Amino acid sequence: MSTIDPSHFFKRKRNTSEIKSEILNKYFNAWCGILLHGQKKRTIDTVIYIDLYSGQGLYEDGQPSTPIKILNSIYKSKGTFLDLNQCVKTFFNDSQKSIIDKLVLNISNLSYYSELVHKPMILNEVANQNLLANLLNNNHPSLTFIDPFGYSYSQQMLLHSVQRWGSDLFMLFNFNRIRSAVLNSKVDSLMVQIFGERLDLIKEYYKKISNTHKREEFIIEQFEAIFKDKKYLTFKFRINFPDKNQTSHYLIFVSKVRIAYIRIKEIMQRYSDLQEDGVPLFGANQKPLRLLTPEYARLLKFSILNLIKDLSTKAELFNNKTIQGVYEEHNIGTNYIKENYKKAFEELRNQGVVELLDKNRKSIKTITYTCIINYKEWPNQA
């Protein structure tokens, strides 16, 4: 899969395992670097990777799937500056014992298995579940891959994870599963604990609104709100079936670490469809709205025109900051990526709103992300 062009990856139908294997390992390596060496106020020497839908580790053709890919990454880093072999503890599980049995065999057959400092733990054993609980209670940062609407243990882990700093969640699920979970007449008690009063809100919304697309958006918004209420940052990526205006999967990432949130956006922008102005939709197989005139972009939730307008009023916040600095602060909760900020500030310069300076405070023509922004006028803030 590593040879697949990201921009074409979703052009054919993909199952959960394929999507997970393509994307998660890329993020895992970035996440480890952020947590182990990117925290100014914390010293972290151990991180935890939890895979609650691990599969058997190898596809039928013998190629590695996510668990083996993760372990390969850990082993390959041995002796480097970011030595994951010393720092990462892995836990794997699956809902089917037959799959777990194959996973245990495939892991134990790895040529480097004896060299792994922390041997992978299988969570269908009670002792290993207790060990994981103790580690998490000691506030070790964790990255958990989870289907939040799968079997009960995954839902229990979801509830546990959102209580702690450093509990990042990588969730991938078929939309039909969340719809069934929350609209079932006999709602599981764990769903009640996860959604709370939002279950009633969703059911009331379904009674009032018949539009399928609006219903889907409302359910996903309510799910994201569970984490936002706890001050998490959430990133959402919608995957449609190829050639259909119908959702196949949602990928939702949850973190309290800003740079982790930014990094998943940077990875997923390569898989995303774009609007005409270059702003990502953060979805695959979407149908971007065609703009009959450039001014129509103002009607979009996120557009270069709207970004330009917003940044033009932010002198008090962004004067004397670099484009990179503005991007890192402003992009949270938006679809904007770094390239969009460069384009927006170029237009603001053309309009005479800002001047772009180098580190010596001299005006420059070539725009880089290290340019310092100097607002020429300070409009009244709304």
Structure description:
The chain has helices at 16-37, 66-76, 84-87, 97-108, 126-137, 152-161, 175-183, 189-195, 198-208, 212-228, 258-268, 304-312, 315-318, 323-330, 338-350, and strands at 47-51, 88-92, 121-122, 142-146, 167-174, 233-240, 247-255, 283-284, 354-357, 372-375. It has 382 residues and is an alpha/beta fold. The chain folds into 2 domains: 6-284, 3-Layer(aba) Sandwich (Rossmann fold); 294-375, Orthogonal Bundle (Arc Repressor Mutant, subunit A). The strands form 2 sheets. The chain has an 8-stranded mixed sheet with strand order 3-2-1-4-5-7-6-8, sandwiched between helices. A two-stranded antiparallel sheet has the order 9-10. α6 (152-161) runs parallel beside α8 (189-195).
Secondary structure tally, helices: 15
CA-to-CA gap between the ends?
49 Å
Main sheet makeup:
8 strands, mixed
Instruction: Find the CATH superfamily of the largest domain.
Output: Vaccinia Virus protein VP39
What's the CATH first level of the largest domain?
Alpha Beta
The portion of residues forming beta strands comes to 5-15%
Oligomer: single chain
What is the 3D form?
globular
Mean pLDDT: 90
Question: How many structurally independent domains?
Answer: 2
Poorly predicted tracts of residues: none
In the CATH hierarchy, the third-tier topology of the largest domain is known as Rossmann fold
Helix content: 40-55%
Helix/strand/pairing category: alpha/beta
- What is the N-to-C order of secondary-structure elements (H for helix, E for strand)? HEHHEHEHEHEHHHHEEHEHHHHEE
Question: Rounded to an integer, what's the Rg over CA atoms?
Answer: 23 Å
The largest sheet has its strands arranged as 3-2-1-4-5-7-6-8
Total strands: 10
CATH architecture tag of the largest domain: 3-Layer(aba) Sandwich
